[in-house]
Amino acid sequence: MRERERPMSSQPFGIRLRAAMNQRGPLCVGIDPHQHLLDQWGLPDTAEGLASFTYGVVDALAEHVAVFKPQSAFFERFGSAGIAVLEQATIRLRDAGALVIIDAKRGDIGSTMAGYAAAYLAEKGPLACDALTVSPYLGFGSLQPAIDEARAAGAGLFVLALTSNPEGPQFQSARTTAGPTVAGAVLDGLRELNADAEDLGSFGAVVGATIKSTGEDLDIRGPLLAPGLGAQGGTAAGLTEVFGTAVRNVVPSSSREILAAGPGATALQDAAARSNDAFRTVLGY
Ligand SMILES: O=C(O)c1cc(=O)[nH]c(=O)n1[C@@H]1O[C@H](COP(=O)(O)O)[C@@H](O)[C@H]1O
Q: Hey, which of 206, 214, 258 would you mutate to test ligand 1's pocket, going by the most ligand atoms within 8 Å of its Cβ?
């Protein structure tokens, strides 16, 4: 069967992502159950508190928002009980038609990367999600097993390129021996992976909404995950300055700003809808 004729569930990630953003708006809600948010929601700092918080977000938003990005760190904090919540939340979100990017920023030598790929990207993996954040600092080529598994499963990757934290440029703006910056080399690698994509490829970059203009070419024919909105100071209006003509491919991600509206489901839905509307206008959805 040709790619375009396949049912949506078995389409490559980039195609599913564009369809979901067209349908529900571009907002990605980050699920970052910080200790202070559990406290603010009146929940204990335990695995049970984590579960109530996470399923509260899932129940309120799974049918309204296109993309979710659970932050693995805050689930790992509670060991296997926390990982079980991440697993369940991922299943429930996907069952409700949302896409899940697990933010685990994995990166290792190729043979170990294959283990992460089996956990997060393989169709029957225990934490199977739609896309995974990965780190390229062991060399872009070290990501190959994850790239292969993503292609086989119709999943995607988001590779760190220009991160939102102030320390990022120390490495990311440094020049490689071949000439481009480290970030530029990552973007070049992604452009190559997406070369055959008609609209949006499955291999994306992480580019912080806070980075201002860098002179890097962000047109990689793939999605640009933009965290740093809200709590870190990035705004919807500022996205055009950072992304220029590539702004249409941005997946704007916001965690604390939306989560702080909880625990009420209606308040969470209102916060997500407001945010989604602002991004729709800027990104042209
Ligand atoms: O990969 C990420 O999502 C990420 C990359 C980056 O450059 N900056 C960044 O903040 N993030 C993540 O995005 C989320 C931001 O959360 P808020 O600042 O609360 O919206 C956190 O889970 C971060 O780990």
A: 206
